[in-house]
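Appendix B. Raw example, untouched.
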Amino acid sequence: MFILRAIGRFFARIGRWIRDTAWVQPLLIVGGIFAIIFSIPYITKWVQSWFDSSNAAQSFFSEYKLTLDDSEKGESKADGLFKYMTGQTSQEEGKKVYGEKFFIMLTKESCEGCEDVYKGLKYLRDNWNKNEFTTSDDFRLYSLFVDSTNSDDKNLFQNYFYNNYNVNFEELASTMTLAPYYTNKGGSTTSYATNIESLADPEAMSVPTLFYVDVAYNETAPQKNSLKVTEVLFTVDAKDTQGGNDLGRARTLFDCWNHAKGTIFSSDYNKQ
């Protein structure tokens, strides 16, 4: 009975407080409204930062974009690169413009799987020629947005650009089964093997796709091909998580760049 009376007194006090302070309630409501109004700019900035983060990958790849415009005539910026790669233009001039070692990223405007590749590439670029990423090479990256369309709304990559190099892509799908990454790791997974096969079909090609081109290495590589692509990645796994995943992904990409001995990008990789 004592407990019931205590509970009753508690609710009675709440009732009296509401009755006696009714004049405060409109102030609380007005104050709440103003608090919401004044917080709108901060909420807007937070939402904007969220969208900026989600678009960061495509903003990054846009910095290195080679357009597909005029690929109908084989005269796009991307064609310039691929003509160099396939030996259709001066190799000396091409080396000056594009280099002998570089990544090529196949991406698109809305690319769910591109973020991990982006994080690894960005970390590598930002720390290029520093500490463990010291090298005499220049960091080079080119990107192709495979969802680009022309004025007739036709996909430029599938309908024109790929057709300019279809023989080269078909060859690549075959030769990359001999690449170290494929034989050491990638080929053991159905998805990777399927993605390699899809290089021979422009409508089935996986996005993202990251090509690594090494002109000199290609000459003696078992996976030698006319595009001079020495490795193909569809994801970038962290080599290790010590120091964070982005650092680990950068280490993976740097191993790829150097065909580092003892790694999955080398024929002497220890699988045990």
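End of appendix B.
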